[in-house]
Automatic annotation (TrEMBL):
Homodimer. This is 3-isopropylmalate dehydrogenase. SUPFAM superfamilies: Isocitrate/Isopropylmalate dehydrogenase-like. The record marks 145, 192 as: Important for catalysis. Gene3D superfamilies: Isopropylmalate Dehydrogenase (3.40.718.10). One of its GO terms (biological process) is L-leucine biosynthetic process. Catalyzes the oxidation of 3-carboxy-2-hydroxy-4-methylpentanoate (3-isopropylmalate) to 3-carboxy-4-methyl-2-oxopentanoate. The product decarboxylates to 4-methyl-2 oxopentanoate. The gene is leuB.
Length: 374
């Protein structure tokens, strides 16, 4: 087989970003070794670390590297020094939003799975969440996050405008319908059409597109009800389609079904280079402590492999993650009694991908302090 050569731009970012990216890269390197591919990783600055180095959260060099890459792997950005300073004019999140816009990443796809091995870790009743398998299509380059924002002239008020064009809705709606066709053929549009004009446009466009996908059953939920239904009866959902802010909120909420925010990956796609990132943020409280769960980023790596058309390789990563879950090789938020570190979880998954390892032996190695066996 020909050697597949791919260049991956890595924007590790802030907080736990570099720690979780390190483990995802380790796993992708194990994939390359086992399957005979060549992946090169081009590390670039974005977020608070980029502001520190260049005064710009998305330096031109970083953007150029993304355009020159076959895919982008992102950790997370954000730092409390900006979160706690509402007057800061330059902010890490501006880099992320500008990146999404510049790369045209209009569809953010967030799978939510209830793993049998973790059912007991969710605060939700196992029988309610068992078997959950939903795919959230979050619009990523429009809506209120990108509208005009500012303070009123008297300085006593503020505004954030929410706008959507028909075209912005159509392009992600088609992707969501196409995904639903390959799954359980149900699409739920989450909006606030009883109040918001933008939501009424979303309904109008989805109703117009729906006849092109006759096998897909469409239903509509207001976002407040959806927020409740997602945890009350998550199994009712197949594909959820929604706008930017609602998707941001609903997907963090849905991570409670999986058991941890540190488990949910995502793919952001558009017409150019695609980007893969965990749905969580920079979790600054965990920075440098080795407690961050790397699985969301590792699974984002699996989505990256699928994007390259490497299904067998992606399946190998998912199987290795499953082995970690089944063997309780997990970070402290999911395993309080015998927790593993970020690095140990990454090592185990990479080792599994590279050729397998006996789980019991690995646990014994961890117990005697051999944290780096790969
Ligand atoms: N895509 C991105 O880069 C995002 C960046 N942010 C930024 O991240 C910073 C922190 O924001 P927060 O609201 O605290 O959200 P966050 O997602 O960083 O953390 C929220 C909570 O989720 C849990 N968590 C998150 N990641 C985890 C992991 N890998 N393993 C285990 N538990 C994990 C922790 O309990 C944490 O307290 C802010 O500066 C924010 O702007 C927030 C969301 C997304
Ligand atoms: C800057 C935010 C929009 C990041 C975030 O919360 C996300 O993408 O999920
Ligand atoms: Mg979010």
């Amino acid at each position: 087989m020909d050697v597949l050569k791919k260049k991956i731009a890595v924007l590790a970012g802030d907080g736990i970003g570099p720690e979780v990216c390190r483990e995802a890269i380790k796993v992708l390197e194990a994939v390359a070794e086992r399957f005979g591919h060549q992946f090169t990783f081009d590390q670039q600055l974005m977020g608070a670390c980029a502001i520190d180095a260049t005064d710009d959260p998305l330096p031109a060099q970083t953007l150029r590297a993304c355009f020159e890459a076959d895919a982008v792997l992102l950790g997370a950005i954000g730092d409390p020094k900006y979160d706690n300073d509402p007057s800061a004019k330059v902010r890490p999140e501006q880099g992320l939003l500008r990146l999404r816009k510049s790369l045209g990443l209009y569809a953010n796809i967030r799978p939510v799975t209830a793993y049998d091995a973790l059912l007991a870790h969710s605060p939700l009743k196992p029988e309610r969440i068992s078997g959950t398998d939903m795919l959230i299509f979050r619009e990523l380059t429009g809506g209120i996050y990108f509208g005009d924002k500012g303070r009123t002239d008297d300085g006593q008020g503020a505004y954030d405008h929410c706008t959507y064009s028909r075209e912005e809705i159509e392009r992600i709606a088609h992707r969501a319908f196409q995904a639903a066709e390959t799954r359980r053929r149900k699409l739920t549009l989450v909006d606030k059409a009883n109040v918001l004009e933008t939501s009424r446009l979303w309904r109008e466009v989805v109703q117009q597109i729906a006849p092109q996908y006759p096998e897909v059953r469409v239903d509509y939920l207001f976002v407040d009800n959806a927020a409740m239904q997602v945890i009350l009866n998550p199994k009712q959902f197949d594909v959820i389609l929604t706008e930017n802010m609602f998707g941001d909120i609903i997907s963090d909420e849905a991570s409670v079904i999986a058991g941890s925010l540190g488990l949910l990956p995502s793919a952001s796609v558009g017409d150019q280079v695609a980007l893969f990132e965990p749905i969580h943020g920079s979790y600054p409280q965990a920075k440098g402590r080795g407690i961050a769960n790397p699985i969301a980023t590792i699974l984002s790596g699996a989505m990256l492999l699928e994007h390259f058309g490497l299904q067998e390789e992606a399946d190998a990563v998912k199987a290795a993650v499953q082995a970690a879950l089944d063997s309780n090789i997990l970070t402290p938020e999911l395993n309080a009694t015998s927790p593993c570190s970020t690095e140990q979880v990454g090592n185990f998954i990479a080792y599994q991908v590279a050729g397998g390892i006996d789980c019991q032996m690995y646990k014994e190695n961890i117990a005697v302090g051999m944290s780096t066996i790969i």
